[in-house]
Design goal:
The chain is mainly alpha-helical. The protein has one domain. Helix content is 77%, strand content 0%. It contains ten helices and no strands. Helix 2 runs antiparallel to helix 8. It is globular and about 55 Å long. 53% of the residues are buried.
């Protein structure tokens, strides 16, 4: 009887984990939608920083409404945790702000699919580092041969995707995108710790978004004061202002899932959805003058192989 109960419990955990992975894939696809929406808004406004500020402000407002309406803040205040507080847990929003601003800058220049390839490389390598040094709420997961090979393959895929682009090869922009992807890996770890501290993924996401919004607001003020942000032409299409809702959905689910999946596995699932969403967007609704190149498809396929390889082996160590 005991063995049967144990088997049932194990099967239930695996089933719930698979559901969590599937939801993370769907949430990852929303990041591609967010990148497309924010890219269009940035083209209209002429400022990637202001676009990122709009996206974060909308996401913060939506999360605040949900937290207040569902009384999640009161529940978080009464949460108890014996774990010591770390200052960097509250800085995850900086990684997200950097990614959104970079995406808004890059999408009009390279397209959503190539943006996804660049972020994949940064996220994969960043997740390896975060897991290796033990920043993940799941504990330390050492770098294995499989993980190292997967990360190298992801970087190779990035190079192939960059060479396949018919426009000017912007190595600096690709490096910036990869760096932003690495910041997302650190953000996922920080938000996971906040979720464990408060017991509320919505509150963790709200803290992350609030920090990102403040950082972007300060940057926008500095750029405006220095004359780098001129007069803005605000578009009248409401849909261009809703990218933050996609980001808020993803960050909330990621905060809830990272403790179960770990940073690397969470990254693999979200990257899978992100790349699928990116390619589908470029196929179904390509931006003006944009299309899916054979090299981009090859790079995307290689990245899928990379994330599968890098996900093999490596148990968490406390």
């Amino acid at each position: 009887m005991t063995q049967t109960t144990g088997l049932g419990a194990g099967t239930g955990v695996e089933a719930s984990t698979r559901v969590l992975v599937g939801l993370t894939v769907l949430a990852g696809a929303l990041l591609s939608v967010q990148a497309r929406v924010n890219g269009s808004l940035a083209s209209e406004l002429g400022s990637s920083v202001v676009t990122a500020l709009v996206s974060f402000s909308v996401g913060t407002a939506a999360l605040l409404i949900l937290v207040v309406a569902a009384r999640r803040w009161q529940r978080a205040r009464h949460a108890r945790s014996e774990r010591p507080l770390r200052w960097w847990w509250f800085c995850g929003g900086l990684g997200g702000a950097f990614l959104v601003a970079t995406s808004a800058l890059a999408v009009p220049r390279i397209g959503v699919a190539l943006l996804g390839v660049g972020i994949v490389a940064g996220q994969t390598v960043g997740s390896l580092v975060v897991d290796e040094v033990g920043l993940s709420p799941r504990g330390r997961q050492p770098i294995t041969v499989f993980r190292a090979v997967g990360a190298a393959l992801a970087v190779a895929a990035l190079a192939i995707g960059a060479m396949a682009d018919r426009r000017e090869l912007m190595l600096g922009l690709f490096a910036l995108i990869a760096l932003a992807g690495g910041g997302v890996a650190a953000q996922q770890a920080a938000n996971g710790h906040l979720q464990r501290l408060t017991g509320e993924p919505l509150v963790a996401a709200l803290i992350s978004f609030s920090v990102g919004t403040v950082a972007l607001a300060l940057l926008a003020v500095v750029l405006t004061a220095s004359g780098q942000v001129g007069s803005l032409s605000w578009p009248g299409e409401p849909g261009l202002y809703l990218g933050g809702l996609c980001g808020a959905t993803y960050i909330t689910l990621a905060a809830a899932a990272v403790g179960r999946l770990g940073v690397l596995r969470l990254t693999l699932a979200s990257v899978a959805g992100q790349l699928l969403g990116a390619v589908l967007l470029d196929v179904v609704r390509p931006a003006v003058g944009d299309s899916v190149e054979v090299g981009t498809v090859v790079a995307t396929a290689l990245t899928f192989v990379a994330v599968l390889i890098s996900g093999r082996g490596g148990r968490a160590r406390r």
